[in-house]
Amino acid sequence: MKSFRAKAMQRISAKSVRSAQMIENKLLSLPWRLSKEQIKWLNNKAHDKRPEIRELAQEQLNMRFHPERLAPDDADEFEDLLLNEDDDENEW
């Protein structure tokens, strides 16, 4: 009976490793533009109990939805491009 338990635990462990590898592969091969279902799935994986899955999902979310973290210096340049209300009045 003891060997049956050991084999069962070994199979469960192998399945969980395989599952984690499949999720990591899916996270790394996500398209840039995500559907609503993919965004929901990605948000769920960002709260996964496995730290490697959670970190990778957070990285994917940050790349897609937080561009200010990628290039903080560009924010000043963007603000310069915006028209002020005073500028509009002076042009006419």
Describe the secondary structure blueprint for this structure.
Blueprint (H helix, E strand, L loop, with lengths): L1 H27 L7 H10 L5 H15 L1 H4 L3 H8 L3 H7 L1
What does the model show?
The chain has 92 residues and is mainly α. The protein is built from six helices and no strands. Helix 1 runs parallel beside helix 3. It is elongated. The model has no long low-confidence stretch (mean pLDDT 77).
> What is the beta-strand fraction?
under 5%
Computed CA radius of gyration, to the nearest angstrom = 23 Å
* Helix/sheet category: mainly alpha
Give the rounded overall mean pLDDT. Answer: 77
Helix content: over 70%
Work out the number of β strands. 0
Q: Give me the number of helical elements.
A: 6
Low-pLDDT segments? none
Biggest beta-sheet profile: none
The arrangement of helices and strands along the chain is HHHHHH
Distance between the termini: 89 Å
